[in-house]
């Protein structure tokens, strides 16, 4: 199972919005609404930010939103804050009854 | 409060075996699917294995199929990962996580180092 494709890095200034893409295939992202997004700060465990494409767990800021079109899912962070600087990973269920992660995107808040 | 605490990591030689445990609390363990995810030093996340709430259904990444076995003891609220025929490439922090469709809660991880 090949990893989902994410940009290696994105950046933005405080207050701006950024979008991270996650491209898969018709055997994962394109065929299932089980895409989730995880935030990981250095030395810490990952934290779920979005599940089932666009749902936010309780306690996660509404500045985080998710969407999907075809084989590509997206995570948008609006009103960037310094604390958002972290690595972000997407993940999808697959037709092989497994899960696959993207390679990760490093978000830098300028 | 949900807590997941991994244990059992350490140094093992190539070809060796190791069993990881994950003690769960704060939720109905037997009703939750569980997963193992690993992260090699400086690398991204890799899903390793998943198991249904009853333990009847198990799932594996191709990279570990036939070498790793996931199991659970719902009477002890504990998840396990038996790792055999370990390779240098299996060196990573291993996280247990609640869920399968989405990984809702994560432990802090345990480091497994495979080296001679």
List the topology elements.
The complex is a heterodimer of chains A (about 110) and B (about 120).
Chain A: E1 9-12, E2 18-23, E3 35-40, E4 47-50, E5 64-69, E6 72-77, E7 86-93, E8 99-101, E9 105-109
Parallel strand pairs in A: 1-9
Antiparallel strand pairs in A: 2-6, 3-4, 3-7, 5-6, 7-8, 7-9
Chain B: E1 3-7, E2 10-12, E3 18-25, E4 34-39, E5 45-51, E6 58-60, E7 68-73, E8 78-83, E9 92-98, E10 105-106, E11 110-114
Parallel strand pairs in B: 2-11
Antiparallel strand pairs in B: 1-3, 3-8, 4-5, 4-9, 5-6, 7-8, 9-10, 9-11
Oligomer: heterodimer
- Cα radius of gyration of chain B in angstroms: 13 Å
Work out the helicity level of chain B.
under 10%
Rg for CA atoms of chain A = 13 Å
SS elements, strand count of chain B: 11
Percent strand of chain B: over 45%
- Overall helicity of chain A: under 10%
> What is the terminal separation of chain A in angstroms?
35 Å
Task: Please give a structural write-up.
The complex is a heterodimer of chains A (110) and B (116). Chain A starts with 8 loop residues before the first strand and ends with a strand. Chain A is built from no helices and 9 strands. Chain A is 0% helix and 44% strand. In chain A, the strands form 2 sheets. In chain A, strands 1, 3, 4, 7, 8 and 9 form a 6-stranded mixed beta sheet that branches. With 110 residues, chain A is an all-beta fold. Chain B is mainly β and 116 residues long. Helices cover 0% and strands 50% of the residues of chain B. In chain B, a hairpin with a 6-residue loop joins β9 and β10. The N and C termini of chain B lie far apart (40 Å). The interface between A and B is medium-sized, with 25 and 21 residues.
């Amino acid at each position: 199972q090949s990893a989902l494709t994410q940009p290696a890095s994105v950046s933005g200034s405080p207050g701006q919005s950024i979008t991270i893409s996650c491209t898969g295939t018709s055997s994962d992202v394109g065929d299932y609404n089980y895409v989730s997004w995880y935030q990981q700060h250095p030395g810490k465990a990952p934290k779920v930010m979005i599940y089932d494409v666009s749902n936010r767990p309780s306690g996660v800021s509404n500045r985080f939103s998710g969407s999907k079109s075809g084989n590509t899912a997206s995570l948008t962070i609006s009103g960037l804050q310094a604390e958002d600087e972290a690595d972000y990973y997407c993940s999808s269920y697959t037709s092989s009854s497994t899960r696959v992660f993207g390679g990760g995107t490093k978000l830098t808040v300028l | 409060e949900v807590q997941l605490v991994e244990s059992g990591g350490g140094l093992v030689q190539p070809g060796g075996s190791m069993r990881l445990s994950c003690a769960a609390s704060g939720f109905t363990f037997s009703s939750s699917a569980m997963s193992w995810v690993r992260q090699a030093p400086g690398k991204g996340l890799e899903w390793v294995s998943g198991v249904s709430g009853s333990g009847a259904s198990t799932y594996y990444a191709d990279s570990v199929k036939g070498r790793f076995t996931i199991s659970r003891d719902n009477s002890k609220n504990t998840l396990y990962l038996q790792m055999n025929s370990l390779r240098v490439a299996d060196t990573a922090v291993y996280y247990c996580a609640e869920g399968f469709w989405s990984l809702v809660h994560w432990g802090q991880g345990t480091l497994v180092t495979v080296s001679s």
